[in-house]
Amino acid sequence: MSLRHVAIIMDGNGRWAARRKRPRTFGHQRGARAVKKTIEACIRNDVAYLTLFAFSSENWSRPEQEVQKLMQLFMRSLKKETPELQKQGVQLAFIGDLSRFSEALQESMRKASEPINTEQRLILNIAVNYGGQWDISQACRKLAQEAKDGLIQPESIDEELFQSYTSLHPQPVVDLMIRTGGEHRISNFLLWQIAYSELYFTETLWPDFDMPEFNEIVNAFNRRERRFGQTSEQINA
Ligand code: IPE
Ligand code: IPE
Ligand code: MG
To answer: Does the pTM exceed 0.90?
Structure first.
């Protein structure tokens, strides 16, 4: 089974900084470097879609100063890195409720996600103010409205139709979901799209994540048998 779509919960920046007696925001800065390495690793491994959890809908409840610094870092990184990424064939996209961000940041995201004019090698989705439950409820809202307006019949709502209203449509669902930082939870990241993903948890704190570890995880993924409900005998027939 080929590895098309990887999703990552990039966790552990704060602890990485704390171990060095530095402020949490220093960890976020170093985390940005790990993002670059991961993009490179995806391109080398022919992964076509990468979805990164950068800021959850729950992360607004962090100390105001940390949220502010994260927004600044986000804005700076977008401005600085987008041209180079586009040259490399990376098409950017943003998922989440973007309306809560400043007008300037929304404009930067719109600009950064314009279609690239080089050959596309990777679609990079950045999840910001994203929540898996939000994604499902916004899909429901659209479906309900269309049903009310007579555009769709309630009977026609099945998994395929529902999925077409979720954020990552028409991209394929996630094959492999990685979480760094040692916690074994989803923290309201993608829910619908990871229904049959392989899950991989690593203790590595996000700023330390690099290409050799990514390659190791890809190897582990390749050794797994994705049965999708079938038996091993059926898969190997
Ligand atoms: C992940 O690292 C980055 C964001 C959530 C923005 P954390 O900031 O959660 O780092 P830890 O989990 O506190 O170490
Ligand atoms: C998940 O990490 C969100 C991101 C990586 C952006 P958190 O650090 O916010 O998750 P919890 O609070 O440990 O569940
Ligand atoms: Mg965390």
So the answer is: yes
